[in-house]
Write a structure and sequence with these properties.
634 residues, 3-stranded antiparallel sheet, 14 strands, alpha+beta, 50% helix, 5-stranded antiparallel sheet
């Protein structure tokens, strides 16, 4: 292990007295150190004063932490159950938003060529390269950009802001979620876009081994690095983490060192503007200063609900904190009253003897008093909290109406019998859910995803050979399309109108009327309508071309059906032919009978011959075999 040596201190610099432009020229080490440390102190002080306590409260609500209370004048614990309403709301909204945004295929974003600046094939090339890097696993764990964006979305809901960092290293493009507590921005900025901050400071804790593996850094000797690891300064961010750990029943010691000296960490402050980058170690050593090669701050992020007075936004917990505290209070008060009802207080007559064993009731206890009705009076509570759970249910409805999250958790609409008795009521609820989801989706697209895509294209244009010459940072030759918010709203409209459309266009009389005018229903469009309404357009290919084997099987089935129909036709023709021959024979027999009868009526005919002819005619006219047909003529 190397020895310990204190790093040399740079002279203090009064920036007000320095006549230089920090954005355009390389400054001295002392000037760079003063710029970063004083900016960091200002950002940290203002942020902690406005948001440190708020973040602690949000963590307490998220974990349902309730301080233990006691009955007055005793050490008997009162009910202190926590109801994590904030957790329920955030965990319900997270999959609903993520499925709408990332459920599109093949890409969750669209790329359109700008006329006069690019061609459609160039836009397609940009889309393919960005999708390639976004879907490429970052390491052996299989983490992708979508995984990082999911973590960012979770913090976006939880703290009111989500922040990510992107760049290029020896493994290619990286996009990672950054804890909001490690990002320091200008608190005077009123814009919801993080780029509008004058500067961004990224606070990191890197091991000595990690620092030595990075090229381009001006590192001190090992003895100074070892000293820095042993004297890493603490910040408000670590104090918040320490407090949060206690809410989870754990302990966190930020000053705990690794047994391996090379794995011990040093604080790093990375100062970013659109033109400069400065690295500071432990707030005393300038490890790097130079030009920002990207020309922009490589961060993206924004608020869940914007606050027009600052970049920091409002979180889910800020809107339903009162409802969670109300539910916790009502629940615990109800439990306290039940405890009093099951173990009521007693008033005893002064002077009445009570054995110590009779102070606390228990099964099988015998309490001996002289006059029970006079010496002992029970103090039974009046059951005023019997409607507590009705009030809690109403509180949950208020929270759902405020954020629309519980409705989403119930597959699109919260079940309320009064509102679901008709199709119109169900459609109204579904439309209300989509309307409430629209703005969160739109903000996530506007403040987070759109800046990410444009900055990704700019970085790839400089680092990815297949993107060079296609993207121009100044012209921005393509336009990125994000349609999750609009699709969510349009889907509700389709779901409401779907039953009427299907009943109309699939009705037999309607199809026959179309056929008479030379038209027909396009069932491929009906299938697309169904998938758009159910959100499965890009998830499942329900209709597709037949395989060669299926086509051969279908042709064989058609040939067999044709042969069967031909055989049936031949049988019918044969039956018809035989029936025609029989009819002709019957007609001939009838004519012969009539002729014989006419001849027998002749007067000059011999009587014996006449009798024979009538007898033959009677035999011919008599039916044979009981079939009702005439006999064959003679």
């Amino acid at each position: 292990m190397p020895d310990l040596r204190v790093p040399p201190l740079l002279p203090d610099v009064d920036l007000e007295q320095e006549p230089f432009d920090l954005e355009m020229s390389v400054v001295s080490q002392a000037q760079a150190l003063a710029l970063v440390t004083k900016t960091f102190d200002q950002y940290e002080t203002e942020r902690d004063a406005a948001h440190k306590t708020r973040w602690e409260v949000l963590e307490k609500l998220y974990y349902g932490r309730v301080d233990q209370k006691y009955w007055p004048g005793s050490k008997v614990k009162r009910a202190s159950l926590g109801i994590p309403l904030v957790f329920e709301q955030e965990e319900s909204l997270l999959p609903a938003l993520a499925s709408v945004i990332f459920g599109q295929q093949p890409y969750w974003f669209g790329v359109e060529a700008v006329p006069g600046r690019s061609r459609p094939e160039e836009a397609q090339q940009i889309a393919e390269r960005i999708a390639y890097w976004y879907e490429l696993p970052r390491d052996s764990t299989g983490r992708t950009v979508q995984d990082q964006l999911s973590l960012l979305m979770q913090q976006w809901l939880h703290t009111g802001n989500g922040v990510g960092h992107l760049g290029w290293d020896d493994r290619g493009l990286f996009v990672e979620q950054v804890d909001i507590k490690n990002i320091y921005v200008d608190t005077t900025s009123k814009s919801p876009w993080i780029d509008d901050s004058e500067a961004i400071i990224h606070q990191m804790s890197l091991t000595i081994q990690d620092l030595k593996s990075r090229s381009g850094l001006r590192l001190p000797p090992d003895e100074i690095l070892n000293y820095m690891a042993k004297s890493k300064p603490t910040s408000g961010e670590e104090e918040v983490r320490q407090l949060i750990a206690t809410y989870k029943g754990a302990s966190l010691n930020p000053s705990l060192l690794s047994p391996d000296p090379a794995k011990q960490k040093i604080e790093v402050l990375v100062y970013w503007t659109n033109k400069r980058v400065i690295w500071i170690l432990n707030r005393v050593w300038v490890a790097y200063q130079g030009e920002n090669e990207w020309g922009f701050k490589p961060f993206f992020g924004g608020p869940f609900v914007p606050d027009l007075s600052t970049w920091y936004g409002a979180a889910v917990g800020d809107f339903i904190e009162g409802e969670q505290r109300f539910q916790q209070g009502m629940t615990n008060t109800r439990i306290d009253e039940l405890a009093l009802a099951m173990n009521p207080a007693r008033t005893r007559k002064r002077g009445a003897y009570t054995h110590p064993s009779g102070l606390h009731y228990r099964p099988g206890m015998v309490d001996q008093v002289d006059r029970p009705k006079e010496d002992v009076v029970w103090q039974v509570p009046s059951n005023i909290t019997q409607n507590a759970y009705v009030e809690i249910a109403m509180s949950e409805q208020r929270a759902a109406r405020r954020l629309g999250i519980s409705d989403v958790a119930m597959l699109g609409a919260q079940v309320r019998p009064a509102n679901t008795r008709t199709g119109a009521g169900v459609a109204l609820q579904q439309a209300g859910v989509s309307n409430r989801l629209y703005m969160p989706l739109k903000r996530f697209e506007t403040f987070i995803l759109a800046p990410l895509l444009y900055k990704t294209a700019a970085i790839l244009a400089k680092k990815d050979p297949q993107m060079q010459g296609v993207w121009d940072a100044e012209l921005r030759p393509v336009k990125f399309k994000l349609t999750a918010a609009s699709r969510a709203k349009g889907q509700a409209v389709l779901q409401a109108a779907l039953p009427i459309l299907l009943q109309t266009y699939l009705a037999g009389p309607f199809i026959q009327a179309l056929a008479q005018s030379g038209q027909t229903v396009r069932f491929d469009q009906v299938n697309k309508l169904l998938q758009d309404a159910t959100g499965t357009t890009n998830l499942y290919e329900l209709v597709g071309p037949m395989s060669p084997e299926q086509q051969q099987a279908m042709q064989a089935a058609q040939q067999q059906q044709g042969q069967e129909k031909m055989m049936e036709l031949q049988v019918r023709q044969q039956i018809a032919s035989e029936k025609g021959a029989t009819d002709r024979e019957v007609q001939a027999g009838k004519e012969a009978v009539e002729l014989l009868r006419l001849l027998a009526a002749e007067k000059n005919l011999d009587r014996e011959l006449r009798v024979k002819m009538l007898d033959i005619a009677a035999k011919l006219a008599k039916p044979q075999g009981g079939e009702g047909g005439g006999s064959k003529g003679a």
